[in-house]
Amino acid sequence: EKEITIILITHDMEEVLLADRVFVMDQGKVVMSGKPKEVFAHVEELKGYGLEVPFAAELAYELKKEGIRLSDAVTKGRTGGRVMSISLEKVSYIYEDNSDIKKPALIDVDLEIGEGEFIGIIGHTGSGKSTLIQHLNGLMEPTKGRVYFEGKNIHAEDYDIKSLRGKVGLCFQYPEHQLFETTILEDVCFGPMNFGASKEEAEEAAKEALKDVGISEELFGKSPFELSGGQKRRVAIAGILAMKPEYFILDEPTAGLDPEGRVQLLELLKCLNQEQGITIILVSHSMEDIASYVDR
Ligand code: ADP
Ligand code: MG
Predict the structure, then answer these.
(1) β-pairing, 168-171 with 84-95?
(2) Which numbered ligand comes closest to the C-alpha of 125?
(3) pLDDT (0 to 100) of residue 205
């Protein structure tokens, strides 16, 4: 209404789509400019500058390259005949169920996850993603419905929920806020020791996990608070990996990371899935991440 000129500086390509005109910079130079549509038609060139391309532009480009029309490209979800090891049956969860302001967050959710899958959970803010995943390792108990792990009801009286939490690792949003030990190595040892590992066993697991996430040895003795944001997050993730989970749930793990940090993290998850057979459950609101990485 007041016609204020807006100059938005960003590395988020979805935001760039909102602009009238874009300048792309690289090494101190303006290397491309034009309307978003014009700029995003040059997918390879943008990638050469270390930039990503919005999901829709990339998809259109890839399909065109393969000679596929958009209307032919719709595929159906598949389970590929796997054995389903986590299942939710008609799970509902209502926050503040005992008060007048009942807030239903999950309604009759049926969902199955198989061993070795790379699963994506997507939805806008407030759609219930975080509530859902806390049901997968028994942190939350359904108001109605059941959760099974390997065929057993995890809220049955004799169920060993601690062992379930050892198998199903959960990484909360902004996990770096939970770093607290004096050194990185001690922080990553906390989980395994909490699950009964000796100091030596914990350190061995911690070092391996830190190596997996790309934290080099000379950092092990430093305070986690000396690290960059992306490094802190990787340390926090190592803290869960050190417990050697068979299932690894991550709540928006790429939120707030720059494109490079995001790709590194997603590649790590892919590697854990493909090389160590860890089932990955990735919560995201990025269609790009989900489209590029998950099986289902
Ligand atoms: P998402 O992770 O997809 O953003 P959430 O699972 O956090 O969604 O939230 C689902 C719904 O439950 C939202 O309407 C949210 O406001 C509500 N909710 C989440 N946590 C609480 C809470 N602790 N108390 C009351 N309502 C909550
Ligand atoms: Mg959430």
Answers:
(1) unpaired
(2) 1
(3) 96
